[in-house]
Design a protein that fits this description.
Layout (H helix, E strand, L loop, with lengths): L2 H15 L2 H10 L5 E6 L15 E7 L3 H12 L5 E4 L13 E7 L8 H11 E12 L5 H17 L9 H7 L4 E8 L5 H4 E7 L1
Parallel strand pairs: 1-2, 1-4, 2-3, 4-5
Antiparallel strand pairs: 5-7, 6-7
Helix pairs in contact: 1-3
This protein binds S-adenosylmethionine.
């Protein structure tokens, strides 16, 4: 990995993902997590402060990028619950079948290269009765915005670490073997529409 991916990109992602509209989205889903929790693509650890410590038995934070893990170090070290790093991609979750109560996925499904394998892995580790909580951005419902997304996506992927703005989040979850039980959508305020159409809810 070059200097851009190791140092500049983690800083940019930390800033962008720390925006007020995204923070509000985190507040809608992360406090619902309970028990043995797996967060996929933990990034700079921006979700850590939104977990309810009373509900967390243990949190595994899976994050393949060394630069992102470095950015998260302080938040990880000061977490008020047991937190273990998994230095691997979502396509290779090293946990047992049916071992996790909650999977948390925020602004990561847009970036995972082999999202199909990764979702199957999440499904595999999720206990019966467990939940996958998500807040993800993706394909917009309006034709004009979708056309802009299609035009911007190739360049956006290069500068934003492989993030796609065109992914159909509920469609991906279903193809990955998950059933979407609750979903809301909106354009996030103060965010360019091409990057700001957000889906949140839970699947199992
Ligand atoms: C836009 S950031 C979001 C970070 C964090 N989830 C958040 O809400 O702030 C996308 C994250 O996905 C991670 N990522 C990239 N490829 C991945 C993969 N194959 N499996 C899991 N995470 C991945 C990136 O390193 C990055 O930290």
């Amino acid at each position: 990995m070059g200097f851009y991916h190791e140092h500049i990109l983690p800083h940019m992602i930390n800033l962008a993902c720390g925006s007020k509209p995204i923070t509000r989205q985190r507040q809608k889903v992360v406090p619902e997590a309970e028990g043995r929790i797996l967060e996929i693509g933990m990034g700079s650890g921006l979700n850590i402060q939104h977990y309810d410590p009373q509900k967390v038995e243990k949190l595994w934070g899976l994050e393949p990028s060394h630069g992102m893990r470095a950015k998260a170090r302080h938040r990880v070290e000061t977490a008020p619950f047991e937190l273990e790093w998994l230095d691997l991609p979502g396509e290779e979750i090293p946990l047992d079948n049916n071992s996790v109560d909650t999977v948390v996925l925020t602004y990561t499904l847009c970036t995972i290269p082999d999202w199909h394998t990764a979702l199957q892995q999440m499904r595999r580790v999720l206990k019966p009765g467990g939940k996958l909580l998500f807040s993800e951005h993706g394909k917009a419902p309006d034709e004009a915005v979708r056309r802009r997304q299609d035009r911007i996506n190739p360049l956006w992927m290069k500068i934003a670490g492989g993030c796609h703005v065109t992914r159909d989040i509920p469609g991906l979850l279903a193809e990955g073997g998950l059933e979407v039980r609750q979903i809301d959508t909106m354009y996030m305020p103060s965010t360019p529409k091409f990057a700001g159409f957000t889906y949140w809810g839970y699947a199992d």
